[in-house]
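Key idea: predict the complex, not the pieces.
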Amino acid sequence: MTGINKNILRSILVLSYIAIIAFVLFGIGSLLSYLNTGADRSKMLHTEIKKVDQYLPKTAWEPLNNEGRPMDNQTLNAIQNDYLDAWYVKHVAYKTNTLVGIDDYYTENARKNIISIISKNKSENISIVSTTLQHHITLEFFSEDGQLAVISDKDVIEYKRIYNDELLVLETTEQTNYKIILLLEDGFWRIRHIIKEKSKNFNSKFKPAQKNIGLLKGINYYPKASPWNMFGDKFNTNTILQDFDIIKKAGLTSIRIFVPYEDFGKANVNSKKLKKLKKVLDLAQIKKLKVVITLFDFYGDYSVLNWTLNQHHATTIVSNLKNHPALLAWDIKNEPNLDFESRGTLLITAWLNYMIDVIKTTDTIHPVTIGWSNAESATILSDKLDFITFHYFEDLNALEATYLNLKLEIPNKPIAITEFGISSYKGFWNPLGSTELDQSNYHKKAQRIFKQNTLGFMAWTLYDFTTIPKKVVGVLPWRKRAQEHFGFIKQNGNIKPAFKHISKE
Amino acid sequence: MHLKLTYILISGLITLLASTTSKNNETIQLLTKQIQFEAGDTIELNFLTTSTKTPSLYISSSYGSTLVKANLESGILKYSIPQLISNKKGLVNWTLLSENKLCGKLNITANQKAKVLETYLGPPSIEAGGTDYAMLVVIPSDLYDNPLADSTLVTIKHQFLENQGNNTVFIKNGIAYKNIYSGKKSGRILASSECLAFNSKEYTINVMPAIPSNFKINYNRNHKFADGNQITTFSTSIIKDKHGNIVSDGTYVEFFITNTSNVILKTFGTTLHGIAKAKMIHPDHEDQWHVNAFIEGMAESNTITLKFLPIISHFNVLFSQNNRIITVGPLKSFMNQMVPDGLEVELSVYENNIKTQTLYKSSFEGFATFKLDTNKFPSKNYTFKIKTAGIEKTRTNVKL
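Result:
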């Protein structure tokens, strides 16, 4: 008996000894491996390239047919990079009246001209905010020793805002041809001569899209678990497919979704997110729904030097999706007129104007609109859009008159309301709010107006939401609560009375 | 809300007004009819105006844009274009910042007098033979650093030995260029250019010889004996390219020597006036060398054969002090002179026909002496083989 006990004791001692040793060894091992992680040799010299895209105008090269030495791709790339950088540093120089970077991209003689203009502008308090949006480059000549190149750059679209004493005095878009002589100095292709050969004011003419918008009968869509973050980690194709089924069965034919600019990677569009967006369109196609894609969601900068990046973002998305059968239309931006006060009406209008061009030249098939937040702004740029959309959250009694007034001003383009609705929140933060019944009546009435006027519509929104991100309506609780209850379906999945009137009176 | 609405309406109205022609009573009319100017001209734009407003003028040239302030003199708005714009070639577009946004263009051409012939010549050295070439690129520019107009005549001149050539080319895209080809001979091409009676300075292109062609080698030695002391010098013929140009000094020539036992010895030299020399010490035994030389990847020589005769045909071996001291020698060379110090003598010791040890000694004043230590070589019968200059002698069953 005692022998067995002793053996048990012994084995426990031995085992615990082994366990302790193993634990200590494991501890030392993980400490060592932790200490080793800091010394990743590949990162010791910080040789990884951190390239930030700051300037991405649309650049196209004519087929190479130059005099002199045959050109290779690597040099061509180097020339393009340095040439575009030369434009970028020039824009920055004229904007700030400083000379940062000019030395790198202009030869000693060429930079004298820029320096003299900048010193004049500085002394007279003139500053020029500008960008170039398109370049069409032809290589004319490449010298035998590979040190000199002549290019001509046709139809450069230059957008400029000229300020004098901090006041905007002129806004202009020019279409210009340049001839440029470049020299390879210190590893930089520097501009030796630049000569403007032709110039005219740039005016793009409106070309109607090949497809018509038809009569919109749709709804704004976010999955109920991930409002304003549709393409994040909660992205679930089953949920979306079920929701599309609900929408289709409710008698609607289209949805409106949003592409957040930053979330999608800004200039370098995140391919994973783009895949998810494509997937949503595929699902819509399964359920025979059409999709209006709203671009540039949550983008509010508009600064001129970022336009090329915006352009790159839009071109990538549009060119990837333009052939999708479920695509219905492009909405350039949701409620851009809300930024008029903070960023300036003219700047935003110019930005929208250009983005319409960008999208319409990339996709000639699908119609383009802007989702104005009210009918008053809807006349802006109306001659360049395929159809006019605005949002309506005011008194329903005034809707018909508002629409008819707008129709008078823009008689020849289809008009649709792409957001409308009412919150069914009545509670502590808003004791006088509407009930679910009020909401139902509201939608019933709205549908009557739409039907009488054959007006296209897209309601806000399918679901009540539990979480509203701060960036949508701010932090005030009464706004958040109200925003949570615009849906036709409650958070718990029960339908509200208004659901009956989601697509008909 | 109302404020915003009115603001939007007003701004909309303003844009509407701005886009249509002016409906107010201010009329401005351009007086200056000239639109073609030459760089350096004084440019003044005049406008007739009925108002007293003095709007600025926006001008945009090749290098940038700026504003010019107005000067109102008795109903005429005068804008003098600053020299930093008027001196530069290219199109200048202007917009008057008045309500009707009058706009127009000026064209400034280069001042057609060459003041600088900016010349780029490359590559700086080319190969003789008439296929390789250098390119001379000229950017003729005027006093204000504007490239001259396209289609202006430029003469590109070059001289090589007796040949002198003039080529006329026309400026295109702001530059004029000409490929200058090498001749059959190496040397220097001098090049220059001329535009509108203005001459550039002189530029030089080095014409280097083309790749070498095959050549011959020869050797030179003091005597034909394998004494391990004298040096044989190999030299090449004058190495030339296929056009007869002597290759550049410093061309690296490698000599490969294969001896009777197929061991390869290497030596090298670099050319001076086309001749490369390399040296190699004589073998210390009878041998035969096959030598050829290469300029790697380009040219090779013929193969020459050298024979080395043995210097020794016989030597004495003397055992003393219980055979423990072995004296080899005298070692006599081809004129019976003592061989130069340092000839290697090899002593192999065999025990029952098994080689147990090999000892080496260098000769000194004609002799080499081996001392066999009692500790290393206990008293026994040994066989000794003594070898020097390729001759071997054997002493069997020597008792130590």
